[in-house]
## 1
Amino acid sequence: MCRQPLPPGGTRERIVTTRVWVAVDAGGSSTRCVVVTADGSCIGYARAGGANPISRGMPTAIAVVRQCIAAALEDADRPASAVHGVVVAMAGLGLETPLQQSVAESLRSDGIIADVHVESDAVAAFEAGTHRTSGYVLISGTGAAALRIEDGGVAATADGLGWLLGDVGSGFWIGQRVATAALEELDGRGPTTALTQKVLDHFGIDEDRRRQRDESRRLVSATDLLVRVYGGPAISLAELARFAFDDVDDEASRGILAEAAAGLATTLSAVMAPSLPGPVVVTGGVLAGQPRLRRGVVDAMALRGHEVELERVPDGLAGAVTIGLRRAGVVIDASRHAHIRESLRR
C-alpha cells in the first residue's frame, strides 16, 4: 500500500476524490504506476513488466503502460474518468511526440480523457531528486549520461552514446573491464586479481579444468571465457560490474572504479554551467546502488574544482508525479516535494 503521511501543514487537505493524477515510470525491466491526489498523496499502486520502447518495441511498451495504469486505478478504487492528468516517464530520446500521441490514443480507448505527457526518464529522475527546476542529473546504470536541466527541460547532454561508443562509467563499461582484467591475468598480461575467479564462476567454467597445471589451466579457462562472452549479448557484460565492488583491497577493482568515477566526473563536468552549481541528482542501478562509486565521483569532481553534493534517487516515479502536478498548476515547494517522496516509499 502507498503511505499517506500528513501533507505539509500537518492536517489533511480535503481533496475532491473525483480528480486524481497518474504517474508512470516505465523502465527496461519493470514499470511502476501510482495514482495520486492533488496534494501528492499516493492512493494506488501497480507494477508491471518492462516498457522500454527501444528494447521492447512501441506496441509492447504501450500495452504494458496501459496494463499498469489500469491496475493502479483498480488499487486506488478510482474510475478512468477520474483521471485529470497522466505523465509517463520513459526512455527513448526523440520518441516523445509519437509516443505521446500513441499513449494518449490508447488511454482514450480505456476511458481516460485527460492531459497525457510523455517525459524523458532522465528528466523525471532529476525531478524525483529535487523540487528545483534547474540543475543536473548523472546516470549510471546499464548506460551512463549527464544532463543539465533548465526550467524543467533538457539544456545540455553528455555521453549516453550506448555501449559501443560511450557510456563511460556505466554497468556495461565496468563489466567489460572486469572481464578484460580476468583475461589479462589468464594470458599473462595482467596482475593476479580476485576478479578472475569471480568471472570464471559466473560463467560456470569447469572446476576440473582449473586443477590442470597452471599454463594449461589458464589457456583453457581463457578460451572458455571467450566462448561464453562472445556467445552471449554484449550488453550482458553489465552483469559482471558488481564484482568490481566486492573486494576493496583488489588492485584491479580499485583501478576500474577509479577510472569509472573519473569518467563520470568528466561527463558531468561537460554539462555544468558556472551560473548553476547544482543540485546534482544521481540515479541508475550502479550509481544509486554503490556508495563507493558516488564517493569516487565526488572526489573526482573536487579535483576538477567542483564541490558537489549528490542526491540519490532510485528511479523517476516521484519525478513523474511532480511533473504531472506542476502541469496541473500545483506549486511544488520543498515541503510538497518531500511529501510526495515520502508518500511513495514502501
Note: The beta strands are 20-26, 30-36, 42-49, 83-90, 115-120, 135-140, 144-150, 153-159, 280-283, 310-312.
## 2
Amino acid sequence: MRVILAGGGTGGHVIPALAIAQELKRDCVAEVLFIGTARGIENRLVPAAGFPLRLIEVGALKNVSLPTRLKTAFALPRAVWDSWRMLAEFRPHVVIGVGGYASGPAMFAAA
C-alpha cells in the first residue's frame, strides 16, 4: 500500500504523522511519502526517521500582513499543482492530511 502523509509545520502535526507512518510501515509494509514545507519541523524530523519528504512552497494566511497573504494566495495554485504532480508520480492508495499549511494544497490535489 502507498500512503501520503501531508502537512506539518509544528511537532503537533509531525509527531502524530510519524507515529502513523511507523505503524503503517510495521503493520502493513506500506510505502510512505511525506509532503511538507522547507520551513516546518518536518524538514528535520521526517528524514531523520527514515521517510522520504517532498517539499511544496506554501505560506501562512492567518495572522500575517496583507502582502504576505497576497503572496501566499498567488503561490497556492503552484503548491496545488506541485502536490498533484507528486500524487500522480507516487500513485498513493490513501492520502492523509495531518494539518499545517502543507496539508491544504495536498488534500485539495487529492480530492
Note: The domain at 2-110 is CATH 3.40.50.2000 (Rossmann fold).
## 3
Amino acid sequence: CGPTTYNYIHLGNARPLVVFDTLRRYLAYRGYEVTYVQNFTDVDDKIINRSQEEGEEALKLAERYINEYFKDADALNILRADVHPRASQHIEEIINTTQKLIDKGFAYEVEGDVFYRVKAFKDYGKLSGRSVEDMLSGARVEVDERKEEAVDFALWKAAKPG
C-alpha cells in the first residue's frame, strides 16, 4: 500500500519506502524478476479536508504531494516502482471488487459506507502470524458504532455533503 498524498512524507511514511526498496533490491540481487507496484491513494477524507483548508482542488493537491513524495524518495535513493497506479484511476475496479466482497459475505454496507468483515475470513492474520485479538491489543482502532466488530475496517466511504 502506498501513501495517502495529503502532506509531505514523514518518518512513518519513509520506513516502508526503505523496507520495500531493500526487499526489492535483495530479490533482484538473488536473481528474481521483480515487478514493484506502489499505489498512491489520491482520493481520501484526509485529502478532501486538506484541500478545503488550502483552497485547492483535491486531485491537484494530491498530485502536488505525489511530486513532493518523489523528490523525498529520490533524496533517500529509493528506486521508483515499476508502476504507480492512483486510486482515482481505478474507481470502477474498486467498486466491483467491493461488491464481490459484499456478495460473498466478507463485507457489509452501512449508510453508504462499506466495511470489511474481518472475522468472516477465518485465516485473517495468518500471514503475519497474529490473531485478530493480538491485532486489537494496543492497536489504533477507528471507533465507529456502525461497525459489527471493532477490527472491521472501511473499504469504501460514501461521499459526504460539501
Note: The chain has two domains: 11-87, 91-156.
